[in-house]
Amino acid sequence: MASLRALAPSLTRITVAGAVGAAFHIGQGDCDLVDAKAVEFSRAALAQTDVEGEVICCEGPKDNAPAFAYREKVGTGRGPKVEFIVDPVDGTTAASKGRKDSISALACAPAGCFQVLPDDGYYFKIATDHHSIGKLSMDMSIEEIVRTVAKQKSMPLQNFTVIMLERDRHIEILKTLRQLGVRIILIPDGDIAGAVVSCFSQSGVDLLLGAGAGPEATIAATAVKCLGGTMLVKVWDEKKDAKRMERLTKAGVDVNKTYDQDELAKGKELVFAASGVTKGELLDGVRLIRDGALVHSICMRLPSGTMEKSETTLRFKGHPVYKQFLP
């Protein structure tokens, strides 16, 4: 029976398929079409993957967007029993508008390893590399977090870079960061990619901050753990929704707890894979060429900590996945 290590290239093919499906509709202004095609292509690739798999979470259902079904069975059934968290397009709006920072991503692990936070409101996230493991807390102010990470990395604040979603809910955080004089990268969508690049020493990004959705937190935590970094996640208190805390508690979430990468992605056998839909901080976007596509991907896994970047040239005609979608 194949191990996750041996399967890692196959898992990348799933995100490649999702990226290509989405890429056919970049800039057309239809979010549901982007999601639907990414799911359709990803599902076709999963159907040929030698796993006994189950999708335990897929971003999208909360907004009635196209998505994998909860606990959808996937794979040929001839491989290891695994679970997936899939975001066929993290950055659907960005892709629909032809903007940057859209990716297709997934996390995979043996059954029972993932803690998935419900897709109900937002969660505050901090992600950075190994230098700050054990040094950060959600009780810290934004200034304390930034100064701590900068100190651990021996970086002056003027050289320090924070990446975050450009959202109205981050206005006060943005004011603080600008007062500190750090560099700021505001991304339209895609905080999974933001968390990942914060763990790369040569990315020029030092810290992810901000509130985003729950399923993406576990996918990002899987990547961060594979890279040896640290990620903290806690329920973002949204005053406008008085009943949210009660709903989350009923769903099994400790609303006062700070979850880290080891709690969101348990164990030592994990795989993260992603492929670029549009050009971004993590990956280049899909380039459609004559009769095919050029796709850039990244895959990382534990226990080895191996990270692989790849460039895939697809020829659609005759391909077992893509030929079925050709006119």
Short description:
The protein is of the alpha+beta class and 327 residues long. The chain is built from nine helices and 14 strands.
What does the model show?
The chain is of the alpha+beta class. It has 2 domains: 4-112 and 268-325, 2-Layer Sandwich (Fructose-1,6-Bisphosphatase, Chain A, domain 1); 123-264, D-Maltodextrin-Binding Protein, domain 2 (3-Layer(aba) Sandwich), CATH 3.40.190. It contains 9 helices and 14 strands. Strand 12 (287-289) and strand 13 form a beta hairpin. It is globular. The protein starts with a helix and ends in a 12-residue tail after the last strand.
The portion of residues assigned to helices is: 25-40%
Task: Please give the CATH architecture of the largest domain.
Answer: 2-Layer Sandwich
Q: Give the CA-CA distance, first to last residue.
A: 37 Å
CATH superfamily of the largest domain: Fructose-1,6-Bisphosphatase, subunit A, domain 1
What's the number of helices?
9
Structure classification? alpha+beta
Shape descriptor reads globular
Strand content: 25-35%
Please report the total strand number as a whole number: 14
List the helices and strands and how they pair.
Layout: H1 4-23, H2 31-47, E1 52-58, E2 72-74, E3 81-90, H3 92-96, E4 103-110, E5 123-128, H4 142-152, E6 161-165, H5 171-180, E7 183-187, H6 191-197, E8 207-212, H7 214-226, E9 230-235, H8 244-250, E10 259-260, H9 261-264, E11 270-276, E12 287-289, E13 292-302, E14 307-315
Parallel strand pairs: 1-3, 6-7, 6-8
Antiparallel strand pairs: 1-2, 3-4, 4-11, 5-8, 5-9, 9-10, 11-13, 12-13, 13-14
